[in-house]
């Protein structure tokens, strides 16, 4: 089991110019404690800048924490990072971490060599991995000719080349179409539930988190603000309603008026103006109110419909409640 207790990370950055430079301390992670059990998928969520990447870098031993305790199956991971590196791997979304000029086999062979895996074991493992990710027959094809989905399947194989006990998945489905994303989620489930790997997942897709995660940690401004199973968190926040309202010829005045009226009905309402319209996250159902407001004010509605809960709004709401 992975146990991290009170992890902290402070970056030291230079600010200013010439003789006036001085060092500034940025506390990216202030206090984070979490656990990852084998066979479980744990979600790490938070808005941009919450500290997810810094936390993952500490857990994968790429960064040493400023303070805190981190053990992996009772091994002191801060003292013995090499021991930890053997047992983990990371799969990131967005076609990184593979060499396009090399063939699929050469990629896996290269990464396998980095882990000093004996040639005969590596060869057999690579064969199994091509089978697992459905790339059999493509071993000797250069990766640059692969589709996005095939590259991502190869990323999974690369992430499994050292047969890790714990896997860190950083936005693994980013940029993938629905079919490939679904396939990848099935792989992730299989790895946790059939192969007993402990998995940490970051994702901005709510559906993915809901489908996969046994447990979720929510980060905000370098600290944990909430934790629990999907159901526990859903009871707290996911019951909120989300709407998309698109009004013809929206002006700032219209938006200001809308915000004032909605806040008077529900002070916890969150309103975001985006390219596709106004996103409204409210405690209770608001569809009637929204159409009534528009009618009374003489605003013409282009679109108004209820949406699936959005992770950003959920996290914003929890952050406001802290
Ligand atoms: N190398 C660095 N030097 C200085 N500050 C940093 C460094 N890396 C991150 N930070 C700061 O630490 C904070 C947390 O950043 P981090 O990248 O961990 O967040 P995140 O949750 O992964 O965000 P995102 O979703 O945007 O990737 C931010 O304020 C960021 O600006």
Automatic annotation (TrEMBL):
Superkingdom of the source species: Bacteria
Annotated ranges, domain ABC transporter: 13-246
GO molecular function per UniProt: ATP binding; ATP hydrolysis activity
Stored SUPFAM superfamilies: P-loop containing nucleoside triphosphate hydrolases
InterPro entries: AAA+_ATPase, ABC_transporter-like_ATP-bd, ABC_transporter-like_CS, ABC_transporter_ATP-binding, P-loop_NTPase
Family annotation (Gene3D superfamilies): P-loop containing nucleotide triphosphate hydrolases
UniProt KW keywords: ATP-binding, Nucleotide-binding, Transport
Protein name from the UniProt record: ABC-2 type transport system ATP-binding protein
């Amino acid at each position: 089991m992975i146990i991290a207790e009170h992890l902290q990370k402070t970056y030291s950055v230079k600010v200013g110019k010439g003789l006036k430079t001085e060092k500034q301390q940025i506390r990216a992670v202030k206090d984070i404690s979490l656990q990852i059990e084998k066979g479980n998928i744990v979600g790490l969520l938070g808005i941009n800048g919450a500290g997810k990447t810094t936390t993952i870098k500490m857990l994968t031993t790429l960064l040493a924490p400023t303070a805190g305790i981190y053990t992996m199956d009772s091994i002191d991971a801060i003292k013995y990072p090499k021991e930890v590196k053997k047992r983990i791997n990371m799969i990131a979304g967005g076609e990184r971490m593979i060499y396009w000029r090399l063939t699929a086999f050469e990629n896996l062979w290269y990464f396998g060599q980095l882990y000093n895996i004996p040639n005969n074991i590596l060869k057999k493992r690579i064969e199994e991995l091509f089978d697992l990710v459905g790339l059999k027959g493509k071993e000797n094809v250069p990766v640059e000719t692969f589709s996005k989905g095939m590259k991502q399947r190869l990323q999974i194989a690369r992430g499994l080349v050292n047969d890790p006990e714990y896997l860190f998945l950083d936005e693994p489905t980013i940029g993938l179409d629905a079919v490939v994303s679904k396939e990848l989620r099935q792989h992730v489930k299989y790895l946790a539930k059939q192969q007993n790997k402990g998995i940490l997942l970051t994702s901005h897709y709510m559906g993915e988190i809901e489908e996969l995660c046994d447990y979720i940690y929510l980060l905000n401004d370098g600290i944990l603000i909430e934790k629990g199973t999907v159901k526990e968190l859903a009871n707290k926040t996911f019951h909120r309603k989300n709407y998309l309202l698109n009004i013809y010829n929206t002006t700032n005045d219209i938006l200001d008026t809308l915000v004032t009226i909605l806040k008077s009905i529900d002070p916890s309402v969150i309103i975001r103006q985006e390219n596709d319209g106004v996103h409204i996250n409210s405690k209770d159902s608001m569809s009637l109110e929204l159409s009534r407001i528009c009618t009374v004010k003489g605003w013409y509605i282009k679109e108004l419909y209820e949406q699936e809960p959005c992770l950003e709004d959920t996290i914003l709401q929890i952050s406001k409640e802290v």
